[in-house]
Each structure stands twice: as structure tokens, then as C-alpha cells.
Amino acid sequence: MSVDPTALQEVTKKTLEDTQEKINAALTLRQAFNTTTTTKNASITLFALDAVGGPIKDIKIEFYLAADAAATFTPAFYGTRAGDPVTFTVRNIPAIAAIATPGANARYFYEFGDLGEGMQMEFRVAQDNNGAATVAIDGVLTYLA
Known about the structure:
The structure is a single chain. The chain has 145 residues and is α+β, with helices and mostly antiparallel strands. The protein has a single domain (28-144), classed as Mitogen Ypm (Jelly Rolls, Sandwich). Helices cover 15% and strands 51% of the residues. The chain has one helix and nine strands, in the order αβββββββββ. It has one helix spanning 5-26, and strands at residues 29-39, 42-50, 56-65, 72-81, 89-90, 99-100, 106-115, 119-127, 134-144. The N and C termini lie far apart (44 Å).
């Protein structure tokens, strides 16, 4: 008895497509909000996620700087494996540009993409040594899980 390789490939492809459709249908849009302040010469973690129980998809982060901040802000995504939480490294792909002296009510939007199962990520914003001692920052995190 022989198996037609083309037929087997088609069955496998259909099974994978059906599985992906079920996973996507089970995902729910989630949002998180954070209001905090940046501090001169420091970095704050605006959001953090872990995908220990399964992948997290379509991660988007938006944040607002309410004041005219005469400072430079550097946003960055950091990532690590869930079993290695102390080894966060920068994962900016593509690179994220620094924000020099944003105007009042400045809005910034970033897409991280997907976070694979067993991974963790942080979104940090660093302020240089210029401008106000603290600057209010409001963030919105949106993702599918």
C-alpha cells in the first residue's frame, strides 16, 4: 500500500490551516493602561508581558507625553525567555528612534508583533538628564491573547 505524497501534503496543510483558524478565533482583544512619570536620567518600564501560558499576538503600544518636555526620550522593547528573567536584552526590530524634545500632547505608537510562548517582554522609556525632573506619561497596551 502506498501513500500519495501530494495528498498527504494537502491533508497536512489543511489540518494546519484549521488549527490556526481555531487559535485565531479563540484570541480575545485585551487592553491595559498605565499612568506614571519618567524621571531624569532614568528608565521606567511602562509595560511588561509574559507568554508563559501561550503566545501573545499583535502587541501594540501607544503612549502620550502631556507636557512640553525639553528632554530626549528613548523607548525600547526588551525581551527574554520566561526561564531567564534577569537577562532582558533590547529587541528593537526595526530600531526605535529617540524622541527629541516632544511637543505638548505628543503621541507615539509602536508595534511589537507577536510574543512566542515562553517569552517575556518589557517596554521601557528612558529620559535623558534634560528638562523637567519628572514628566507624566500615559500608555495603552493592546494585544490578542
